Amino acid sequence: MTESSYTRVPVVRRQLRDFIVAAAVAIAIASAAFVGVRNRDLAARQLDLATRSADAAAELRDPLPTVHAALVSEPKLSVKHPYLRRRLIREGARTRVLGADRDVAHAEDKLFYDAANRFQRDGAFAELVPDGTGRAIVAKQAKEGVAIAITAPAAPEPYPFLVMIGVLGLGASVAAAGALVGRRAQRIGMAAGIAALAVPALLWQSWFAAFAILALGGAVALAQGAGLTDRLMSGATRHRVALGFLSPAAVAMAILVAAPFFIGIAIGFYDHHQGTWSFVGLHNFTDILSGGGHSLDDPLNFWFILGVTVLWTVANIALHVSVGVALALVLSRKWLRGKGMFRMLLILPWAIPNYITALMWKGMFQGEYGAVNSLLHAVGLSDVSWFGSWATAFSANVITNTWLGFPFMMVVALGALETIPKELYEAASVDGATAWQRFRHITLPHLRPALGPAVALGSIWTFNMFNVIFLVSGGKPGDSTNILVTDAYRWAFERGDKYGMAAAEGTIIFLILLLWTVFGTRVVRSKEDA
């Protein structure tokens, strides 16, 4: 081996080191793309088989050999048991009572019965059976009832290990060759080596994954040219002990926080319909921000819900701060006896789980037997239908959340009051300052640095306070007291499994809170500097 070859060995090692790190990310992207394409192709193939077989059953033709298709009749009252309804199932030339005779009943009779009931309720549908077997079920109208077809279980395509090993070896060879040539060819070899891992994604027609891998290759090549990869690796080597302690927490954060966060953002660009996903781009976002065809005073309009959410947040934070600071001022008085007991009692609403508190307050706001109406009746006032109008339902929610939120502000204010020097109050009293002047010029300025972050954090909590809205008013009346987070929940679970719309609204909520956090931090800093 020549001397120049020896001098190139460290360069090749660094090149392969950077390639391995980037290749791990690229393979993860390609694998995710393969799983998505594989599942989509399996669903399309199974749904096509089920649809063709359902059409054949509706026309009284023989279905495909691997598909169980039949006609299911309308429900009829049982002669022997009038309170029961039964359905007939026709499989070819044979007709029998669905699920009645154990000797001839098929293992899929329960699926046929449930599908017929769902068709009667919701109309035609086609989807994968949610049991992980890969079976598809289709129900559609026929002249003699409902045509239902269920495919046989199907396994997805196996992972292409040999293909991935082949492109990985090709990419490593290209990257190493570039390092041997040196200079600009080293960066070109790195970009080309990573780009080789995009070939499977291109063959699977996963354009987004292919673009992400190509962008990764270009980014690594640029970072390598700027010397960033060498600096990162040298820093990791120097601080390997510290990184070893941090890695478990970093892995947990990546799995529990980062992965769901980015997956949620990605889902916002897709539409979910009857078990299938389709890319719709920004359609979900534009549909939400445009109001979805609803007028501005419609409770289903995004801007109406945003207005309710902002009003909800402002009202709650104002009450939290006011009540919390007032109680903190009282608890900080020297003449008050039993401070420890009062502090414990006032912190209890914060210690109790908020869903339990929400259910308790909902019971107290109920009808004529609720504790709140009983109290009003005892003092000679008429009962209030708390969930009969927007104003009363909104007030019930605010009262409940105020009970939950004031202890936090009280604790923060108590801590801030303990840091104020007593000499300031004594000097102000000697100068003739009134109680209001002492509060305005001494207490309030010392409370602001502590209350600023507390208000920002409390705003985020209140903005996303799902439990109170969902459990107390439930959005009544007519979904008019919903806030953004409960509206996103309803998109996902009460409006036809619109997971894409729910994820898009969740992304919008995140952006709103991000802007509020940045703006609030700057305001607090400017006031502290002043």
Structure description:
This protein is an alpha+beta fold. The protein is built from 19 helices and ten strands. Strands 5-4-1-8-7-6 form a six-stranded antiparallel β-sheet. Strands 2-3 form a two-stranded antiparallel sheet. Strands 9-10 form a two-stranded antiparallel sheet. The protein is flat and about 100 Å long.
Secondary structure elements and pairings:
Layout lengths: L2 H56 L8 E6 L3 E2 L7 E2 L1 E4 L2 E4 L11 H14 L2 E4 L7 E7 L2 E7 L9 H21 L2 H13 L2 H5 L3 H19 L2 H11 L1 H28 L2 E4 L2 E4 L3 H7 L12 H30 L7 H13 L2 H12 L5 H8 L11 H29 L3 H9 L4 H29 L2 H8 L10 H10 L5 H31 L1
Antiparallel strand pairs: 1-4, 1-8, 2-3, 4-5, 6-7, 7-8, 9-10
Helix pairs in contact: 1-3, 1-4, 1-6, 3-4, 4-6, 8-19, 10-14, 10-16, 11-14, 12-14, 12-17, 14-16, 14-17, 16-19, 18-19
Q: Which sequence of strands runs across the widest sheet?
A: 5-4-1-8-7-6
What portion of residues belong to β-strands? 5-15%
Anisotropy-based shape: flat
Q: Nearest-angstrom radius of gyration?
A: 33 Å
How would you state the average pLDDT, rounded?
86
What's this entry about, in short?
This protein is an alpha+beta fold. It has helices spanning 3-58, 109-122, 161-181, 184-196, 199-203, 207-225, 228-238, 240-267, 283-289, 302-331, 339-351, 354-365, 371-378, 390-418, 422-430, 435-463, 466-473, 484-493, 499-529, and strands at residues 67-72, 76-77, 85-86, 88-91, 94-97, 125-128, 136-142, 145-151, 270-273, 276-279.
